[in-house]
Design a protein that fits this description.
The complex is a heterodimer of chains A (185) and B (610). Chain A contains seven helices and ten strands. Chain A has helices at 7-18, 38-51, 80-85, 121-125, 139-143, 163-168, 175-180; strands spanning 53-54, 67-72, 89-90, 93-100, 111-114, 133-136, 148-153, 156-161, 172-173, 183-184. An eight-stranded mixed beta sheet of chain A has the order 3-4-2-5-6-7-8-10. A two-stranded antiparallel sheet of chain A has the order 1-9. In chain A, strand 3 (89-90) and strand 4 (93-100) form a beta hairpin. Chain B has 610 residues and is an alpha+beta fold. The longest helix of chain B is centred in the first third of the chain and has 56 residues, at 9-64. Chain B is rod-shaped. Chain B starts with 8 loop residues before the first helix and ends in an 11-residue tail after the last strand. Classes of the chains: A alpha/beta (185), B alpha+beta (610).
């Protein structure tokens, strides 16, 4: 596993550990004494995406249904994502993590992360209903119709956005999210 | 250098207007600047807070996704606000996550604050704002806004105020010059009028009224005052002139009086209404050898003979109290110590209201006269005494002659022949006449004696008694006697009766052919009662009017008119003893009127000496 670090990230992690009681930032991610790993960063990003995106009501089974983050393929996050999500409430909805083996039915997943283990990531996009944010790990994923793809650039985790795909799925992406994206199609 | 108090009103008004204008403008200017400064600070705080919120919102994603470049780009948008000197985003670790520093500003990021606040510091306005995402703080935005803008605004305002001040002064100066004339000109005119009056003393000057305000009222009052003064001034001048004239006249009169008094041979004095003598002429001081200071007021009494002083002072006080003329004979001491008799008289001078204004008196030297009088009186008294004694002593032998001649006539008439009887008849008749004559003489000498004490006589009663005594003669002559109501007089009643009896008796005696008509009346005149007895008898020829009052003076020697010729002499003697006078008005054949006076206050000219 590639160690992706940045000075700011490492320092932030330390501050977070010191400020646990305040409930700031990454609440329970303190097991690493040094830099956060690439997937720890990506796990945090996954949760952060939910805060800058608006889902249509039709994307949920019930009004009180949680925002489900589904991991398709081998889980690269370990316990990191579960840690981040625990206790988080976004727009009045809890956030849950699901690990799935095949493409989910409509309304089951609000965020679908396709892991590198899925050779044919594009296939996982097929048959998805409205209201599912798709996140992948390569630029090709975005070209193939995915909405957000992580890219590692200069040892920093960044992401690209396919706004057209997101719009056609009925999602509204915050302009602030678009501002921080490496590129937007 | 003139103080503000002393400069002319024109300049005062100018200064007041300019100071007021300037003060008002400056205050207004400061007020506006102060208010604007406060308002602007408030506005600035709100504006920057809004900007900070916007920037903070736009920075959430950059913070969440660890993208300082994006955050810096967001911050860089603040270039549009040139006074933002610094804008910094702090992450949760308290480190600067992104910053924007204005290129020219030599500043650093201000320290972050956990509270949302905006505060003014020395560097400028610092606004801190939490960056929140989903209700959680994920960072802090701090803005530093330099106060160059406020300073700029202050400079702009100051320049504006100064400009307005200069401009308004430029307008106000000529404007107030015009306006102050409205107030200053009437005051100047008034002051000029007042100065003119005080310098020339000409009260006919009037101030011109230019307005209807308080100044106009002032001018009116001033003019009224001047008119009042002018009128009073005129009156005063007249009064002064009159008074001066009166004083001159009084001085002239005084001079005249002094000249007159000094040129008189008598001693002259004057006294105040209270009786203090305040002037003596030279004759008085030279006679007494006393100077004015010694004899003024009551000092003159030292020159009066000690025996006369008491009565003199009493008489003087009485005159002062009653206002009646003062009339007194006394001895005054000459410088060489010799006393000389003087008759002193004083009369009260009265003013228009009848009040006594002063007394004027004189002392006349009557010493020689008095001596002669005294000698005469003594001689007279001696003569009287002699006459009385003589007639008294004569009575006895004469009576003997009369009595014995009658006895001879009764008892021895047969022894006498016719011639002897005739001679005896002459003897008896002569004796009777001698007795009558001597009785009258006694009466005459007694008339010189005034009754022991002063009495008041009722003239009517005296007349009644006289008429009763004459009743027989009146009836015989078929006479008519008429009389008025007569007064009370200071005179012995028997004396008055004697006078009436003699005068009426004469009227009956010297009657004409027609029955006698006799009128008696009295009138008050010049301080005395004047009685008159009028008849329609034979009258008296002018040359004899004085003679008839002599003793034994008879105009008619014939037997037709009997009498001793002593009646009128007795009357004169009685009347003169009481200070009165007796005289007759008559012409031959037309009747006579005898008058005699009795002073209201009879004077005892002589003590009873016989």
């Amino acid at each position: 596993m590639e160690q992706v670090t940045s000075n700011s990230f490492r320092r932030r992690a330390i501050v977070i550990c010191l400020n646990l009681s305040l409930g700031l930032g990454f609440p329970s991610f303190c097991q690493a004494a040094g830099e956060p790993t690439e997937y720890q960063v990506k796990a945090a990003f996954l949760l952060n995406f939910t805060k800058f995106i608006e889902w249509p009501a039709a994307a949920f089974e019930t009004p009180a249904a949680p925002i489900a983050i589904c991991i398709l393929g081998d889980d690269p996050f370990g316990s990191a994502l579960d840690h981040f999500v625990a206790g988080e409430v976004v727009n009045g909805r809890k956030v849950t993590v699901e690990r799935i083996k095949r493409a989910p039915p409509p309304k089951a997943c609000q965020v679908l992360f396709t892991a590198r283990s899925e050779k044919d990531a594009a296939r996982s996009l097929l048959g998805l209903g409205m209201g599912t944010l798709t996140v992948g790990e390569s630029e090709a994923f975005v070209r193939d119709g995915g909405m957000i793809a992580f890219v590692v650039e200069d040892r920093r985790v960044r992401f690209e956005i396919n706004q057209t795909a997101a719009q056609s799925a009925g999602l509204k992406l915050s302009s602030r999210l678009l501002n921080v994206a490496k590129s937007v199609e | 250098m003139l103080s503000f108090r002393d400069i002319p009103i024109k300049q005062k008004l100018m200064i007041v207007v300019m100071v007021t204008t300037t003060a008002a403008l400056l205050l207004a200017g400061f007020g506006i600047v102060a208010a604007d400064s406060l308002l602007f600070r408030g506005y600035l705080q709100r504006d920057l807070s809004a900007v900070a919120r916007m920037v903070a919102d736009n920075s959430t994603a950059a913070l969440k996704f660890n993208d300082p470049e994006s955050a810096a780009e967001t911050l860089a948008a603040l270039r549009a606000k040139p006074h933002v000197a610094a804008a910094c985003i702090y992450g949760q670790d308290g480190k600067v996550f992104a910053r924007y520093l204005r290129p020219d500003a030599n500043t650093q990021c201000p320290p972050a604050d956990v509270r949302d606040e905006s505060r003014f510091s020395a560097d400028g306005l610092i606004v801190s704002r939490a960056i929140l995402l989903g209700g959680r703080r994920i960072g802090t935005l701090v803005l530093l806004y330099d106060l160059g803008e406020i300073a700029e605004r202050m400079r702009l305002y100051s320049a504006t105020v100064l400009g307005v001040l200069l401009f308004s002064s430029a307008i106000a100066f000529p404007l107030s010059s015009k306006l102050r004339a409205v107030i200053a000109t009437p005051i100047s005119r008034l002051a000029a009028a007042a100065t003119s009056v005080s310098q020339t003393g000409d009260y006919s000057v009037r101030a011109q009224k230019l307005s209807g305000d308080e100044l106009g009222v002032l001018v009116d009052r001033f003019n009224e005052m001047l008119a009042g003064i002018q009128s009073r001034d005129g009156t005063l001048r007249t009064v002064l002139r009159d008074r001066e004239e009166a004083l001159r006249d009084a001085e002239k009169a005084r001079e005249r009086f002094r000249f007159l008094a000094e040129s008189m041979p008598q001693k002259i004095f004057t006294a105040t209404p209270a009786g203090d003598r305040n002037y003596f002429n030279r004759q008085f001081t030279e006679f007494t050898g006393l100077c004015f200071e010694q004899i003024e007021n009551w000092g003159w009494t030292q020159a009066v003979h000690p025996d006369d002083v008491e009565a003199d002072v009493r008489a003087w006080r009485r005159s002062i109290a009653t206002g009646e003329p003062y009339h007194f004979q006394h001895r005054l001491r000459r410088a060489d110590g010799v006393y000389r008799w003087h008759l002193t008289r004083a009369h009260a001078m009265r003013d228009a209201h009848g009040d006594i204004s002063m007394w004027i008196g004189s002392n006349t030297d009557i010493h020689e006269q008095k001596e002669t009088e005294e000698e005469l009186r003594r001689a007279n008294e001696d003569l009287q005494q002699f006459a009385y004694s003589a007639s008294h002593d004569l009575q006895e032998p004469i009576r003997n002659v009369a009595v014995y001649s009658e006895i001879v006539a009764k008892r021895y008439s047969h022894l006498l022949d016719a011639e002897g009887l005739q001679f005896l008849g002459f003897l008896t008749e002569g004796g009777r006449r001698l007795i009558t004559l001597i009785n009258d003489l006694l009466t005459y000498t007694r008339a010189g004696l005034i009754e022991g004490k002063m009495t008041t006589a009722d003239a009517s009663a005296a007349l009644q008694h006289a008429l009763a005594s004459l009743a027989e003669a009146i009836r015989e002559n078929n006479a008519t006697v008429t009389y008025d109501k007569l007064p009370q007089v200071s005179m012995g009643e028997s004396h008055l009766q004697q006078v009436f009896q003699n005068l009426i008796g004469n009227a009956l005696k010297y009657r004409s052919e027609t029955p006698p008509q006799i009128e008696i009346s009295a009138a008050y005149h010049g301080g005395a009662w004047r009685f008159s007895v009028r008849d329609n008898g034979i009258g008296i020829d002018a040359p004899y009017k004085e003679v008839i009052f002599g003793v034994f003076k008879r105009l008619h020697r014939d037997q037709k008119y009997g009498g001793t010729g002593i009646g009128l002499a007795i009357c004169q003697r009685v009347v003169e003893r009481y200070g009165g006078r007796i005289w007759v008005e008559s012409s031959l054949g037309k009747g006579s009127t005898f008058f005699f006076t009795v002073p209201e206050y009879a004077v005892r000219t002589q003590s009873a000496a016989v």
